[in-house]
UniProtKB/TrEMBL annotation:
Transmembrane portions of the chain: 6-28
Classification via SUPFAM superfamilies: NAD(P)-binding Rossmann-fold domains
Coiled coil: none
Keyword set, alphabetical order: Membrane, Transmembrane, Transmembrane helix
The species this protein was found in: Streptomyces lividans 1326
Record protein name field: 2-keto-3-deoxy-L-fuconate dehydrogenase
Pfam families named among the record's database cross-references: adh_short_C2
Amino acid sequence: MSAEEVAAAIGYLASPAAASVTGTALAVDGGMQGLRLRPDGG
């Protein structure tokens, strides 16, 4: 992740285009969150 990518995410969230975005965690991690192993809960 570059500083520019993080800044773009911050810029989006601070812009009027994100007016309807509430209660969301925006992962700026290059897709790594989707690769993490999760407990199977069973």
